[in-house]
Amino acid sequence: MSSLLLQLLAVVSINLKSMPQRRWISLSTVVAIALVVVVLLGFLAMANGFERTISGSGADDIAVVLRPGSRAEINSSVAFDQVRLIEDAPGIARGQDGKPLVSPELYIIVNGVKRDSRTKANVPLRGIGEKGAELRKDVKISAGRMFRRGTNEIVVGKALLKQFEGFDLGSTVTFGTTRWTVVGVFEAGGGVFESEVWADLPVVQSLFRRDNQFQTVRARLTGPGGLNVLQAYDNGDPRLKLEIKSERDYFADLASQTTDLIQKLGWPLAIAMAIGALAGALNTMYSSVAARAVEIATLRAIGFGTFPAFVGTMAESLVLAAAGGVIGAAATFLIFDGASASTLGGNFTQVVFDFKLSPALIAEGLAMALCVGLLGGIFPALRSARMPIVAGLAS
């Protein structure tokens, strides 16, 4: 056993020390694998950042009320009479003024222009009720002030302001035929609400001709059991029959739709590129075996076994793959981590988010790189182990 271990260490050491002799072909393999990792981790960081932004916006003590079968606000509708029934429902918390902590809301899609590409994109304009801001966690006005009720004033999310032009504090924007004044910028803990524009609900209803129309209702619950109580009340009243879920579950469902799509785009592209990198790795390792034919045959002639020759070639391939994986992960972190972007969310509007690279995602990238190295090295390693001594010495 000790003799085999010494042989393994000797052959692996010889292989690795000889790599500079094949520096250019080895470097091409490292770069190809690094590009595969960058592409894969770029998509995964995008999906992770989007999911964190959406899912992190939800709270367990907030109920979201939608029309049955509606997975997003844009497709929902809640009647005026149903809003009144929800305000009087059990399980709904009340403020210090005794009023129910309920916010009926209207969700309108308007046009915005992206700062980087200067192209038009959908922006959500949300008409919120009197309790709307209070029902969202970590919301604070970071510049300017809150809009005044009954006026054409709006406040914009910090993330939206970063990605879209024309929403600077004090500026005037036009939605449809109506001009609005930006009077404030708000933060919401980096959540999805920072990608929205907020205005007074009755004003939005009037100017967009949606009188007494709502798309969703948000309500603060009395406690952990409040959601079940509210759902039971809804099921027992034929005038309601709405879909009620916690805000956290609602956003988790929205996030899963888009993150699944991003990953379904990222993985096939990365696998296709990995096949190309695999071809390069095979070429590199076959060239390595050919260049070391005399060396391999000599070692075999003086008593080295076939297994050390196999392991030595595999070690070289895995080292190249690991180097590509580490370089790719580092490049992805430097280029993408924390970078701001926007993409369509579940309501078909732009959601602004940051790319987020996590240790678990880096591990996935390194695993992909090592798989390329493993597959790219196994057949050349078998050739190295099976090479006849006479053929090797004659080459």
Task: State the shape.
Answer: elongated
When the domains are counted, the total is 2
Largest sheet: 11 strands, mixed
Q: End-to-end span in angstroms?
A: 32 Å
Estimate the helix proportion, in percent: 40-55%
How large is the radius of gyration? 30 Å
Low-confidence stretches: none
Question: What is the averaged pLDDT score?
Answer: 84
Number of helical elements:
11
Strand content: 15-25%
Order of helices and strands: HHEEHEEEEHEEEEHEEHEHHHEEHH
Number of strands: 15
Decide which structural class fits the backbone: alpha+beta
Q: What would you say about this model in short?
A:
This protein is α+β, with helices and mostly antiparallel strands. The protein folds into 2 domains: 2-55 and 254-394, no CATH class; 68-241, no CATH class.
What key phrases describe this protein's structure?
elongated; 11-stranded mixed sheet; 395 residues; single chain; 15 strands
Structure description:
With 395 residues, the chain is of the alpha+beta class. The chain folds into two domains: 2-55 and 254-394, no CATH class; 68-241, no CATH class. 50% of the residues lie in helices and 21% in strands. The chain has eleven helices and 15 strands. It has helices spanning 2-17, 23-55, 80-87, 158-163, 201-207, 226-236, 247-291, 293-301, 306-335, 359-386, 389-394; strands spanning 62-66, 78-79, 102-114, 120-128, 139-144, 153-157, 164-165, 172-175, 178-188, 197-200, 213-214, 216-220, 243-246, 340-344, 350-354. The strands form three sheets. Strands 1, 3, 4, 5, 6, 7, 8, 9, 10, 12 and 13 form an eleven-stranded mixed beta sheet that branches. The chain has a two-stranded antiparallel ribbon with strand order 2-11. A two-stranded antiparallel sheet has the order 14-15. The model has no long low-confidence stretch (mean pLDDT 84).
